[in-house]
Amino acid sequence: MNGGDDDGKPEAHGAVMDGVYDALVADGFADLTMQDIADEAGVSKSLLHYHYDTKQDLLVAFLDHLIERGKARAAEHEDEPAPEHLRKFVGGALVDNDDEDWAFATALLELQAQAPYDAAYRDQLARNEAFMRDHVADIVRDGVDAGEFRDVDPDAVARLVLAAVDGARVDRVVVDDDTPEVVHDALLDHVLADLETDEPGAPERRDGPGVEQ
């Protein structure tokens, strides 16, 4: 990848990243071309190839961009109580989605399916997954530190939440059923409710996933 503005990204970086998103929504992953992305971004195909040698390079950069976007969104909620922050995360992942969101989720699942065969995608997707896991674990850790959640293993709870979220999203993409809504309600009613502390002097948390004995 060639240089661009001061931070090493193209001057049209934001437009290009938006173009990748729009092209994935419109065309999916399998049929995606650099020309599709250029058209959606309002830039020339030659500009894309100046900064990104291949479509793979551009998609890896886009996946990294999703991490930066996730960090910005997380910062918007960092002052909220942990239960509310976790509730919004689960809602945003599972029920606060429109047709465009699910079209993007479908294209992303197509891309993820390449990971076992493509090291560049695999390595970047591993970084994306690590970011999401750390983000959810930080929410839980903040809740424990603030006395809003019981004493649990934040990483174990994060893995449980993400496994449920990811599985529900795959079901929605593959079979178009109501699994996201069902899993959303179950996470709030059984996982989040079980994490939350009661008033001071509440009984010890019952045994469950991620509990430190």
TrEMBL record:
One of its GO terms (molecular function) is transcription cis-regulatory region binding. The keyword DNA-binding applies. PROSITE patterns: HTH_TETR_2 (PS50977). The lineage of its organism: Archaea, Methanobacteriati, Methanobacteriota, Stenosarchaea group, Halobacteria. This is Transcriptional regulator, TetR family. It holds the Pfam family TetR_N. Residues 33-52 bind DNA. The keyword Repressor applies. It comes from Halobacterium jilantaiense. Residues 10-70 form the HTH tetR-type domain. Keywords: DNA-binding, Repressor, Transcription, Transcription regulation. Signal peptide: none annotated. InterPro entries: BetI_C, Homeodomain-like_sf, HTH-type_TetR-like_transc_reg, HTH_TetR, Tet_transcr_reg_TetR-rel_C_sf.
